[in-house]
Amino acid sequence: MSFPQWKGLWDWSMKYADGTAPSGFRPEDVDPVKMKWLEEALKHYMVDFSARMKEIKAALEGDSQGARGGAAAEEAKMDQDHGQDKDQDKGTPGADLEEREALLDELMDIVSSIDYAKDLHKIGGLPVILELLSGPHPSLQWRAAEVVATCVANNPPVQQWFLEGGVLPKLVALAGPSESDGKVRTKALLALSGLVRHFGPGLQALQEAGGLALLVSSLCTTDRRVARKAMTLLTYMLSQRRADCVAAIHEGALPPLVAELSGGGDDQEASDMRQAALGTLIQLASYPATWAAVRDAPGLQAHLAALTSAHAALSVEDQEAQAEEAVLLRQLTAVLAAAAPPVLQPDDHDHVSVEAFEEVGRGTTFPVNELRTTARDAGPGVADQGATATGHSGNGNDGTAVAVATTAAAPLLLGPS
């Protein structure tokens, strides 16, 4: 039995026994009928995921080739049908739109394992993903972007392969204001975040591609998901190269960040947005050359005072629920209340080389620098990082990423009870 089949076996066994109680299975009770049932069940659920990825790639590849062949006719038809859903299938050969969506969903589930994320590149899957990112269907674009985000998260070899393969320009285009679909923009930003975190070459490439201006412009969007992803990634970029705080101020980052603090709402979504804005403002205020600009930003001091009073008036239960926001609020207030600009801090160079990452497979671990802002949205959270590679690396909500060696799984309990 090859290793890739164990996931299917695990999925099957957990349907019948989760280890919380004796299974009641005794070998002596197995009769030929049960044995035949067991063999058929194992045969059905034991999937070779490497082979399945090749099948998915072949199916999607056939569709992308057909779409390229009929691209001109398809664009002409789209121009004539302004009122139709952009996601409507235009009759490309091969699998229809829903089937392609299902294939990408399945692929996303498979590559959540770090080993299969590597295999996607090895079987030549990246060109197919790039074609889907450039295609006419938003539902395929955002799924392809999420596959990228899942593959590259905390995975330096795959980050390097995907960067060299040309994924960054595709993602930058989809994350920009010219893209009208909010979900596509959100997933593109998610993929960009995964591509550059803890990977210096990716971060440098994004900066050279105008990433800073892209993120600042995204702060002004009415789509809250896009704005939050942009704030979180901007916070990270500024922590890695603090001198970019000056450029962020010049690009106009302060007004939308300050405006975010004036938004009402005690729900978690509103609090998350304020936390993201506070995290970015802390980065800007912690750089000596931009400290005064943040301190004197119109309306900021009034918003901070109002938020402080609002937090003080909360019940004990609500204060606990919004504790992370309160931490960031106190931190920013303290930085701005100082009599002089803060001392210049070194950049948080948290690049993880491919060589260091490969050490994980030999039983070692390595820490990655955490951002100085400790609340969830001041650093990369799970939702902003993409799916975490199973058993190899993780991202804490405080912005800390730690790669760990794989741990042994619990014994499987097989057989009908």
From TrEMBL:
Residues 74-90 have a biased composition (Basic and acidic residues). GO terms for molecular function: adenyl-nucleotide exchange factor activity. One of its GO terms (cellular component) is endoplasmic reticulum. Transmembrane segments: none annotated. This is Nucleotide exchange factor Fes1 domain-containing protein. Residues 61-95, 376-398 are annotated as: Disordered. The lineage of its organism: Eukaryota, Viridiplantae, Chlorophyta, core chlorophytes, Chlorophyceae. InterPro entries: ARM-like (IPR011989), ARM-type_fold (IPR016024), Armadillo (IPR000225), Hsp70_NEF-Inhibitors (IPR050693). It comes from the Eukaryota.
